[in-house]
Amino acid sequence: MTEQLKEDLDKVIEELKKKVNELPDSVMAHHHLGLVYMKAGRIEEAIASLNRTIEIDPLNSDSMINLGAIYFGQGDLEKALELNTRAVKVHPESAQAYANLGLIYQQNNELEKAIENYERALQYNPKLVTAWLNLTSVLTMKGEDDRAVTAARKGLEIEPDSPLGHNNLAVALYFKQQFAEAYKHMQKAKELGYSVDPNFSARLKEHLG
To answer: Which PANTHER family did the record assign (predicted)?
Structure first.
């Protein structure tokens, strides 16, 4: 974080703290303060602000999702799962909450549940690129190569310059033995700054001779 950005965030935090003092039951003020604390890396204060938001408004799914993201980043998958599960109960069409649940289940190696939640996320927001890309990874892990290629292509339709998208498509195509096209997407991922697994790169080049 640059010094200027830190100063700017500190100013916003002070302004929001004043607003919270003036309006102690303002959901918006506590929520925004929590988000700025997150951006500033002041995680414990972010947790406190987002928890306060949920105390005031037990149906605030956005705060649940953001709080869940903090716990996920800390490796507390149980707490992240609890919060995103609560989020979909109060907001059953929350694509982001379902996508987050997919990622949590993926981390727990519960692949069927991960797929189910990624697909539910995409049902509500077909343009959620991260869900397409993570779905590609899980389908590849399960050996469902045709579905993995389809998911990767859909993600790249939305975000053509996604480095991860090109890498994931390269891997899915590799397992379908479509080595030439896989190599093309691997090279594109590299051009876009993705750190391609050198072992994967070497294996792909071997197949191409």
So the answer is: CELLULOSE SYNTHASE OPERON PROTEIN C (PTHR44943), TPR REPEAT-CONTAINING PROTEIN MJ0263 (PTHR44943:SF8)
